Amino acid sequence: MAADDHEGAEGHDIEVHLDRLLSERGMTLTELAHQVGVTNVNLSVLKNGRAKAIRFTTLTRICDVLGCQPGDLLSYRKGSSAS
């Protein structure tokens, strides 16, 4: 694997569906952040697809609060980082 395979802010093909999940549940990002125990800024970075990583503990809490599975929150789409 080349060294540049992991560089750059948009160097992944993972899409985050947090906006849709929040809308479906009538919940704000602030409410979710409070219930999950993370900052609004950290959730905003995730929501906007700029996160480089997510801790499994945070993912677990998000799924618990939203009543969803990780696959409802994240999906893989080949070539989505090219935009």
Description:
By secondary structure, the chain is mainly alpha-helical. The protein has one domain: Orthogonal Bundle (434 Repressor (Amino-terminal Domain)), CATH 1.10.260. Helices cover 47% and strands 7% of the residues. The protein has helices at 18-25, 29-36, 40-47, 56-66, 70-73; strands at 14-16, 74-76. It has a two-stranded antiparallel ribbon. Helix 2 packs across helix 3 (40-47). The protein is globular. Residues 1-9 have low confidence and may be disordered.
Topology:
Layout: E1 14-16, H1 18-25, H2 29-36, H3 40-47, H4 56-66, H5 70-73, E2 74-76
Antiparallel strand pairs: 1-2
Helix pairs in contact: 2-3
